[in-house]
Design goal:
single chain, 10% strand
Length: 145
């Protein structure tokens, strides 16, 4: 079965793959696994803690992978879990975790901020608008599968 993929979609897929590869390389260069970086990144993007279910949702990583990575980070003294209500848990950075995050996830967030700071405001808005439009359309098409 031959599938016709537009040149634009091929280019988009290539760019997404290349971006993912750069994020992977950044994680390795900073001494973290991809899942540990995503956990620290999501926590830092949220403050000093984040709901466990929110980390899984926002990172796009499976709950099982996130849970395994969090257990490892707990053993290393980087994070601890705090009960929030009957079913929810908050993933919190320890002091050691805050130091690690400062040298890893926060550096990545600063790199991303620097990139946007170098762009024209209109370009940033257009990029975000088109990305959001693509996401909304993809979600809609997924609902109609």
């Amino acid at each position: 079965m031959k599938t016709c993929i537009s040149n634009e979609m091929k280019r988009y897929n290539h760019l997404v793959s290349e971006i993912d590869a750069v994020y992977h390389e950044i994680s390795l260069n900073l001494g973290l696994s991809d899942s540990a970086m995503k956990i620290l990144y999501t926590i830092c993007d949220n403050g000093d803690s984040c709901l466990l279910q929110e980390i899984s949702r926002r990172s796009g990583v499976s709950k099982q992978t996130i849970n395994s990575a969090i257990r490892k980070l707990e053993k290393e003294g980087i994070v601890y879990l705090q009960s929030v209500g009957a079913k929810n848990k908050n993933v919190c950075l320890t002091d050691e975790g805050k130091q690690l995050a400062k040298h890893t996830a926060i550096r990545l967030l600063e790199m991303e901020n620097d990139i946007f700071a170098s762009w024209e405001k209109d370009d940033i808005e257009k990029y975000l608008e088109l990305t959001e439009r693509f996401l909304t359309s993809l979600k809609e098409k997924n609902r109609n599968l």
